[in-house]
Design a protein that fits this description.
Length: 348
């Protein structure tokens, strides 16, 4: 395959990706220091803690670290928020993460930089349709990914994140249970292939991970033959098949620390580069290509909803109490059961 590759063109493409990644790493330097100081003061004044996802911009991740908050995947965000003593959680991420925090910590005020930040998986799994789908298969255990609304969680038997999905589904399958999996079909496929479970899939997808292309990654591998390919399982099957490591954001981050490779091709949101670079400053991280040359990609390895989180909106939410998350109490109580089941499973 390598004889067919125009290496000069590929080097240009790679350089473009590297330059974009470098640009994103420079962001904290140019951020407004006064705004950051204001947020720090507000966090103290309001007895609040910042809970940020790996896909948020560097400046927000940096602020979470500097103020005793956390940068994490959605499972760890949920656990950290529930166990932290602060009265207010500021959740920088997307709406289902704020809802999860409220479900687990109803006594706390949950703020987000913007309630507009949602997720294609959440949007693609409306509660009414999903409930009907479940009703048509009453013999199946309903397992939903964390990237769903509170109402969909309330209809589920289990909630899982990508960090724990394999273990939970393996456990259910070993107990002879047949499963409905929603909403991400690619992650569901991966879970099915790894566990051999009887899984009926909902057909949702993440618009970011769905854009990664196996061909583009193989082309990059020709340039960086010693690079390890790290893939989030929300990616399509051909991409998962060529991965050296498949895992959640925290599992991919761990792999970059533990593996000897000095270059990694990373197929997940480029926000994760902040922590990867911080943990391994001497290693090289290359964005996996999306959508192919000349295509108009909708995500380009960065979630458009995660990108809505900004320091300014975060400051406004804290200062003015806007963008607060509320969850109907009846829904919350129902959604808590499958969520708590996941957290207890993790502990055990
Ligand atoms: S990256 Fe994908 S799964 Fe994550 S919030 Fe964005 S759209 Fe949803």
């Amino acid at each position: 395959m390598s004889e067919l590759i125009d290496k000069a063109a590929l080097r240009d493409t790679v350089q473009k990706y590297l330059s974009e990644a470098e640009e994103s790493l420079k962001k904290p330097v140019v951020d407004n220091q006064a705004l950051r100081d204001e947020i720090k003061a507000l966090l103290q004044e309001k007895d609040a803690v910042l809970v940020a996802h790996y896909y948020c911009e560097d400046a927000i991740q940096e602020l979470a670290e500097e103020t005793g908050g956390v940068i994490a995947d959605s499972l760890e965000m949920a656990r950290f928020g529930a166990e932290h003593p602060a009265k207010t959680l500021v959740v920088a991420g997307v709406k289902f993460m704020g809802e999860t925090a409220k479900i687990l910590s109803p006594e706390k005020t949950i703020l987000m930089p913007t309630l507009e930040a949602t997720c294609s998986l959440d949007i693609g799994c409306p509660e009414e349709e999903f409930s009907k789908f479940c009703d048509e298969h009453p013999d199946r255990t309903v397992v939903v990914y964390a990237n769903t609304s509170a109402a969909v969680k309330a209809r589920a038997d289990w909630v899982v994140t990508s960090a724990i999905a394999l273990d939970v589904v393996q456990h259910l399958s070993d107990n002879g249970e047949k499963i409905i999996w929603a909403p991400d079909q690619h992650l569901g496929n991966y879970v099915q292939s790894q566990t051999g479970a009887d899984v009926l899939l909902w057909d949702g997808a993440c618009i970011v991970h769905e854009e990664f292309k196996a061909k583009g990654i193989l082309d990059l591998k020709a340039i960086y033959p010693d690079a390890a390919v790290l893939v989030h399982p929300e990616s399509p099957e051909p991409v998962v098949e060529i991965a050296d490591v498949v895992g959640s954001t925290s599992q991919l981050l761990k792999a970059t620390k533990e593996m000897d490779n000095d270059t990694f091709i990373v197929a997940t949101d480029r926000g994760i580069f902040y922590k990867m670079k911080q943990a391994s400053p001497n290693k090289r991280f290359v964005e996996a290509p999306t959508a192919g040359s000349g295509a108009t990609c909708r995500s380009c390895a960065h979630c458009p909803w995660m990108a809505l989180n900004s320091l300014e909106l975060l400051r406004n939410a804290l200062r003015d109490g806007t963008d607060e998350i509320f969850v109907d109490e009846e829904v919350r109580v129902k959604a808590l059961k499958p969520l708590q089941r996941m957290l207890d499973f993790k502990k055990s």
